[in-house]
TrEMBL record:
Residues 10-191 form the Aminoglycoside phosphotransferase domain. This is Aminoglycoside phosphotransferase family protein. Residues 1-21 are annotated as: Disordered. It comes from Actinomadura parmotrematis. InterPro entries: Aminoglycoside_PTrfase, Kinase-like_dom_sf. It comes from the Bacteria. Pfam families: APH (PF01636).
Length: 263
């Protein structure tokens, strides 16, 4: 069961699947923190009913159109980077220390790749996709994904549909997978999400050029981009049946993207 979204003139009501309190509470925590420390960047939290059969949140409705599915000009790319930087830095360190880690951190994704995704996908693929899976596994065996990284608040979803452009600035929605993270991993979530390249490719170099990464963050970003590109390859390869959500050949395109990142 998916979320149910009810949109009014000034509010949005999000109903989560039955019993799904975790995602509801993560989103409420994020909205509350951002309202306190970066007001206007995300919806204002108005009402929480985590104990309902279908937990729900009522929040303010933000103006703007999603960045996904449209070519972005230089001003929009810069505004996206500004919003992302603001989210990452919004929660003060002493407060962030008490925020739980977000789901889907690198070690968790690596375990998912090895124990679940590859055994399911590898026997079903061939050619360029199979070669990229094998190359990804060889890289993963020697990858350092546990390097120390400065904590940052992570929205947890890199889909450009969650970034709304109002003609002047970008605001952020959807914090179901949010929590304590680090900048490099969260930036990789955006650059490697299918939304950043399947339709109108994001100018990744321009976007990252606005993010002022340290040398250590640059190294970690490279590893995180490879990891998430590998995750997306496995998901897209598994999505290759008739009626799949993405155009034919998307997995092959992703295989090429992963090979370029590994190269």
């Amino acid at each position: 069961m998916k979320n149910a979204i009810e949109t009014g003139p000034h509010t949005v009501t999000k109903r989560f699947p039955e019993g799904d309190r975790d995602r509801c509470e993560r989103e409420w925590r994020a909205l509350t923190l951002l309202a306190a420390h970066a007001p206007g960047l995300a919806p204002e939290p108005l009402e929480l009913d985590a104990g309902a059969a279908r937990p729900l949140i009522v929040m303010s409705r933000l103006p703007g159109v999603p960045l996904r599915g449209r070519p972005l000009d230089a001003r929009q790319v810069a505004a996206l980077a500004t919003a992302v930087r603001q989210v990452h830095a919004a929660v003060p360190p002493n407060v962030l220390a008490d925020v739980p880690e977000r789901p889907g951190r690198p070690a968790e994704l690596a375990a998912w790749i090895r124990t679940r995704a590859v055994p399911h996908v590898r026997p079903r693929v061939s050619g360029e996709v199979a070669g990229a899976v094998d190359a990804g596994l060889a890289w993963l065996d020697g990858a350092d994904l546990d390097a120390d990284a400065a904590p940052a608040f992570g929205p947890g979803d890199g889909n450009l549909a969650n970034y709304l452009w109002d003609g002047t600035r970008v605001r952020v929605v959807d914090f179901e997978e949010s929590g304590r993270s680090d900048r490099a991993f969260e930036l990789a979530e955006i650059t490697e999400h299918a939304a950043a390249w399947v339709e109108h490719p994001l100018e990744v170099a321009a976007f990252l050029g606005h993010c002022d990464l340290t040398a250590a963050e640059g190294v970690r970003l490279c590893a995180c981009r490879r990891l998430l590109a590998f995750v997306w390859l496995l998901m897209l390869a598994a999505d290759g049946a008739p009626g799949a959500r993405n155009p034919p050949g998307t997995a092959e395109r992703q295989a090429g993207r992963l090979a370029a990142l590994l190269g």
